[in-house]
Amino acid sequence: MPGPTSGEDFDLDDIPPDPPVHHAEQALLGALLLDPHRLKTIGPLAPEHFASPAHAAVFAAMTGLTPPTPAVHAKEPAWITAVHSRARAQSPGLQPPYLHTLVSFCPVPEHAPAYARMVRAGHARRTLRAQAEHLTQAATDPTAPDPATTAMAHADALTGFLDNLASLFPPHPGSLPRTPLPPPPEHGRGDEAAYEERALLACAVAHPKTLTAMRWLQADDFATPLYGQLFRCVAQLAHCGDAVDPVTVLWEAQHHGLIPPLPPREVLDLLTTPAGAAEHWGERVLRRSLLHQARAAGLRIRAYTDDPANSVHQLVTGSRRALADLTAVRARWHHATRPAPTSIAARAGPRSPRTKPASTVRTGR
């Protein structure tokens, strides 16, 4: 039985076509081979902006050489020969005929600045996608010693990159992407998450006054929606100053329509076994919510970059909106984990003992 790599299974139609940015790179390099002095007109561009390694090598060779004078360039192929010789050091498989092919792929050499803008846009899309991947991976890496800090560092880098893109690419009408949003990732449910959320509920019922200082936690932060709604019931009773115990919470849960899904006996058992401190379990729940939002933002941004219909400005606008939910959870996370402020007296240190001013003795004349 032939394997999946047999010749009869190979079809040239299975090879994906080159994206438009590939043709923009060819057109730009062709224009610069035809007229090397157009290098001064294309704006800021670097070899890493090119998706093709061969194209990057050709452009790096161009920027590392001194263009010939127009008179010499019109008579001799010195420029294309020098570019090929220098580019082969980075791309050994580059053949001289391909450089002549690049020249033939340039429709209008005067449009080199437009081709360069396309190359920069393609690089921006690829870089944004890579940064979104880093954010998603950091939010789901179980081996990281501090995944929340790592994920937020990637979010900061992504935000800075978006700010830079916004300054390079002008806005235009219809700046919101129309890409269908991917389904939200499943919350990190599991035995550990369920245990922590149950422990939080029991501690909150046993010590409802602690919820006054835990307004940074919301029902949407829970991985199990039913537990989040139970927390909303407990918090509502506590904030209103009503009696809080397993029975009153059960009664409140009934008014919120939670009792058919949850048997009353199960609710009572869940709320009567406190262990630990509510603040500790609350921070655990909020951290899981923070990482969930980071992953959701990364997946959403990646979906935008995978849609070729989005311009760079649309990518910036959509990505900033994707990060907005993460920013909101992050603000609550900082509020929950910031160190307790020290009093002014403690910062100033102990008071020094007062000394009476020395008495002034007046002497007569």
From TrEMBL:
Swiss-Prot/TrEMBL GO biological process terms: DNA replication
UniProt region (Disordered), positions on chain: 1-20, 172-191, 338-365
Keyword annotations: ATP-binding, DNA replication, DNA-binding, Helicase, Hydrolase, Nucleotide-binding
Comp. bias intervals (Pro residues): 172-185
Gene Ontology cellular-component annotations: cytosol
A GO term for molecular function: DNA helicase activity
Top-level taxon of origin: Bacteria
Domain DNA helicase DnaB-like N-terminal stretches: 22-120, 197-263
Record Gene3D superfamilies: DNAb Helicase, Chain A (1.10.860.10)
SUPFAM superfamilies for the chain: N-terminal domain of DnaB helicase (SSF48024)
Protein name: Replicative DNA helicase
Organism of origin: Streptomyces tsukubensis (strain DSM 42081 / NBRC 108919 / NRRL 18488 / 9993)
